[in-house]
């Protein structure tokens, strides 16, 4: 429909003075309100989705629950939180780990391994897939290692192997028990045989703890698979696990395709492994510090009595 003459001849709307915007009645009623309620000012991570139920959980509530959902899912946490939740009063002292060559094989698959490392370091802020700290658990000075699944799936490479050995040496020097929170998809394929060698090297390091009569406790978290499970994750004096943590060598789908059989419900979960003797006890995240402290005190007490005999 053609415009009327009145509309044709209507003068253009004058520009607004500098500093003013057309923002609807709310902005005119209360200048600055638009900025206050704009989407840009709303935190993007205020809610987290439960992987089991799809429920949206208020992030502060999830943090207060140690990142355990109302459905009981123990969500993955980074080393800093793990240390804070484990050590008495959240007090601990990180110690530096040995530096290893970044890309000893010059590996490239799709994109160079160096780029994968750089991206993982930028995302996590960590040099590699493991962190170490010293502090007290239940009053017992302990050396703790935490694998970070967010860093290339917590994969076992030369850096992780060197870190494990350095942490064992620290425990022997301090005459302190050694605890590791395992979380890994397995060996790091980008380092080939050098990665597989770490399975043997960490196993030898554990023998140093044995000779020093120092406790070695493994806490299995979700997921722990591959070469890690085939080495140091299954060589502890005591094996604890968080609820529903998946623990195995190869994933469920690969096994089912290989043997052409349907595996039982709950296969490879921590509860399944307890029934079969691979795990000693399933412990919730909230109870872990108390349970760990009790175990370490008992084992160190036995060491002291044996030394005195």
Number of helices: 11
User: Could you give the order of strands across the largest sheet?
Assistant: 3-6-7-8-9-10-11
Largest β-sheet summary? 7 strands, mixed
How would you spell out the order of helices and strands? HHHEEHHEEEHEEHEHEEHHEH
CATH fold description of the largest domain:
2-enoyl-CoA Hydratase, Chain A, domain 1
Which value, in Å, is the CA radius of gyration? Answer: 27 Å
Low-confidence stretches: 1-8, 19-23
Terminus-to-terminus distance: 106 Å
CATH class of the largest domain: Alpha Beta
Strand content: 15-25%
- Would you identify the CATH H-level superfamily of the largest domain? 2-enoyl-CoA Hydratase, Chain A, domain 1
**Name of the CATH architecture of the largest domain:** Alpha-Beta Complex
Q: State the helical fraction.
A: 25-40%
Number of strands: 11
Integer average pLDDT:
88
Total individual domains? 2
The class by helix and strand makeup works out as alpha/beta
Task: Characterise this structure.
This protein has 309 residues and is an alpha/beta fold. The chain folds into two domains: 47-73, no CATH class; 77-308, 2-enoyl-CoA Hydratase, Chain A, domain 1. It is 37% helix and 17% strand. It has eleven helices and eleven strands. A seven-stranded mixed sheet has the order 3-6-7-8-9-10-11, with helices on both faces. It has a two-stranded antiparallel ribbon with strand order 1-2. α8 (192-211) links the parallel β8 (178-184) and β9. α7 runs parallel beside α8. The longest helix has 21 residues, at 288-308. The chain is globular, with a radius of gyration of 27 Å. The relative contact order is 0.10. Residues 1-8 and 19-23 have low confidence and may be disordered.
């Amino acid at each position: 429909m053609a415009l009327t003459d009145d509309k044709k001849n209507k003068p253009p709307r004058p520009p607004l003075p500098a500093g003013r915007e057309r923002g609807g009645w709310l902005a005119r009623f209360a200048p600055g309100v638009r900025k206050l309620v704009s989407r840009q000012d709303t935190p993007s991570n205020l809610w987290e989705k439960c992987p089991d139920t799809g429920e949206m959980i208020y992030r502060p509530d999830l943090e207060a629950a140690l990142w355990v959902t109302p459905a009981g899912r123990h969500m993955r946490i980074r080393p800093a939180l793990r240390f804070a939740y484990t050590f008495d009063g959240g007090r601990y002292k990180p110690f530096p780990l040995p530096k290893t060559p970044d890309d000893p094989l010059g590996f490239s698959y799709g994109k160079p391994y160096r780029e994968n490392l750089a991206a993982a370091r930028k995302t996590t802020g960590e040099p590699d897939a493991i962190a170490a700290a010293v502090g007290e658990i239940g009053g017992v000075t302990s050396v703790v290692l935490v694998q970070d699944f967010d860093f290339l799936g917590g994969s076992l490479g030369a850096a992780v192997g060197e870190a494990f050995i350095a942490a064992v040496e620290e425990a022997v020097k301090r005459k302190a028990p050694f605890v590791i929170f395992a979380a890994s998809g397995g060996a790091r394929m980008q380092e080939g045989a050098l990665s597989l060698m770490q399975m043997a090297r960490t196993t030898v390091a554990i023998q140093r703890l044995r000779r020093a009569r120092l406790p070695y406790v493994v806490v299995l978290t979700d997921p722990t698979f591959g070469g890690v499970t085939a080495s140091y994750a299954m060589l502890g004096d005591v094996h604890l696990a968080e609820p529903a943590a998946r623990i195995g060598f190869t994933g469920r789908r690969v096994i089912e395709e290989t043997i052409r059989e349907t595996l039982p419900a709950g296969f490879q979960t921590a509860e399944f492994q307890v029934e079969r003797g691979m795990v000693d006890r399933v412990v919730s995240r909230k109870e872990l510090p108390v349970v760990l402290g009790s175990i370490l005190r008992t084992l160190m007490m036995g060491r002291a009595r044996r030394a005195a005999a």
